[in-house]
Amino acid sequence: MEIRELISRNDPERQFDVLKNSYSQIEYAWNNKINLLQIDVSQIHNIVLSGLGGSAIGGDLLQNYLRDELKFPYQVVRNYNLPGYVNENTLFIASSYSGNTEETLACAEVALRSKSQIICITTGGKLEVFANNNKLPLVKLLPGFQPRYALWINFFTLLKIIQTLKLIPDQNKIVEQIISLLKSKGNEYSENSNKALEFAEKLTGYIPVIYSVSDLTSAVGARLKGQMNENSKLHAFYNYFPEQNHNEIIGWETFSEKQFNAKVINILDADYHPQIKKRFEIVSELVNKSGAEVLNIQSDLNDFKLRLMDNIYFGDWVSYYLAVIRNQNPTSIKNINYLKEHL
After folding, report:
1. Would you say the CATH fold of 194-325 matches that of 3-176?
2. Exactly one of 166, 173, 246, 258 is catalytic; which is it?
3. How far is residue 226's CA from residue 235's CA, in Å, rounded to a whole number?
4. Topology given in CATH for the domain delimited by 3-176
5. Would you say 64 and 215 are in contact if contact means Cβ atoms under 8 Å apart?
6. Average pLDDT, stretch 250-279?
7. How confident is the model at residue 185 (pLDDT cuts 50, 70, 90)?
8. Helices and strands, number each (H, E), in the chain
9. CA–CA distances in Å: residue 55 to residues 145, 192, 213
10. Can you give the residue ranges of every domain in the chain?
């Protein structure tokens, strides 16, 4: 069956169009007027972001993206509680696309009691009420998306907040380049024959095992894993180098396709330490010897930030195409909805 027929049959909500127009989320976020005058930057000693799922991955990506520029300790929290060090010198960012993520709401209450400086990011819901009741800075996101498909509006809202507070150098030029990149790649990946579709076809019938690198591309690996889960309705596993070399590498000694039909996806980058590059080569050799195929994702652009976005966007399209190839709706999240109903 042709890919257009599969899309028409399996994507009634037209996430295809949302993906293709991802660049417009960046434009909205970067042009959004935000008021953070009540935040006292001189009192900030650390930054904590609370979020889950699609509202947390933007926080992870921020850590990779600003690896050399953000001079403050920074942590993403995915639970109901905050670290003990959170206090009046903490910039706390509550990020919930729906505004009703109970873990984030619980953390926001803790941050309020800790007298942290709080910024809320949401489309509405209980988090908007919380912000308004406590007269806190509120940054509204554009509604109408599945949270995981709203990564771009979430991430670039976070980035603009950090820039508005003058905690990092100006990002306007690189943001313009990223918008152009996503426009171009969106057109490319929308064609009937394209690299993202070809990559997805190679994964059909296999469980992806994804490897990236701690602190550099860890968000790319985590994002791809989550997109395989939610979009493709597929188990996927994720780890990062060099940690993988100290434990998971041993699992490949007894790998058997009869037990676990897997393919490895390496997230590669030119900025990796030479020893990291060598580690990937050695582990890929061992994986091949064990009987599993290794696929690589690597952007050839000349700027690390552009490569980061290029790889994430590519992975989003791969997970989308893998869904429709497998006759799955890339929008539906039945088990998550069931869980929420029964909590």
Report:
1. yes
2. 246
3. 9
4. Rossmann fold (3.40.50)
5. yes
6. 94
7. very high
8. 13, 9
9. 12, 31, 21
10. 3-176, 194-325
- pLDDT of 84 higher than 80: yes
Place of tokens 């109901």: 80
Note the CATH number of domain 194-325: 3.40.50.10490
| DSSP, residue by residue, 152-184 | HHHHHHHHHHHHHTTSS---HHHHHHHHHHHHH
What's the pLDDT tens digit per position in 18-27? Answer: 999 999 999 9
pLDDT at 51: 97
Determine how many CB atoms are found less than 10 A away from the CB of residue 332. Answer: 17
Instruction: Read off the pTM.
Output: 0.95
Catalytically annotated residue among 235, 278, 289, 340: 340
| Residue 246 appears among annotated catalytic residues | yes
Record the tokens describing residue 210, joined without a space. Answer: 């994804």
Which pLDDT tens digit goes with each residue over 40-67? 999 999 999 999 998 999 999 999 999 9
Task: State the Cα–Cα distance between residues 125 and 85, nearest whole angstrom.
Answer: 28
Considering 20, 225, 230, 263, which one is annotated as catalytic?
230
